[in-house]
Structures are given as structure tokens and as C-alpha cells.
Amino acid sequence: VQLQASGGGLVQPGGSLRLSCAASGSIFTIDVMGWYRQAPGKQRELVTIKTTGGSTNYADSVKGRFTISRDNAKNTVYLQMNNLKPEDTAVYYCYATAYWGKGTLVTVSS
User: What does the pLDDT read at residue 28?
Assistant: First the structure.
């Protein structure tokens, strides 16, 4: 499975970004898709995941601000991030059932 993420960048506090991640390859093995992030000097942590059946899980720190969506037909997962905070600054990694994409940097700064 190959994962291609896009959509990172620099945004001001309170702003929004949308990340996308498209899966290709042995996609029939994919159940869970989602996002993790790793801030400088910190361990990688869960942001949110969504199963093929639609179940979701969010980190407490992003509840109410981030929304995960998934297009199973396109094997693509999205992360809509609203009301971004400086502490959201991190490299965001797409995840799909034991596979990892290359990270995309999100920087929240004025």
C-alpha cells in the first residue's frame, strides 16, 4: 500500500487547512485510515482514525475542531482542520492499517 498525502502548509492561528491522503496498491487490505502527528521533541500521537464501516476516534485535543472524512470509492481520507492553534504544529502522517505515508508539515503561527 502506498499513501500520498498533501495539503500541509503555514496557517495563522484560527485558520483552517485540509489534508488529503490517497491510498494505492493492495487497498483491499485497508480497514482503518486516519492521521497521526508528531510535534518537535514529542512522540507521534493519534489525531483521528476512521474505519471502513464509519467508526471514528478523535484525540481529545482536536475534538470539535478537526473532522475526518473518507471516500472509500477513491480510497482517500481527508482531515479538515478548523480553528487551528499553535500547538497543532506538527508533521502529520497518513495511516492506513499498518502502513504510513510520508509526513506533511502543518505550521500554525502568526
Answer: 72
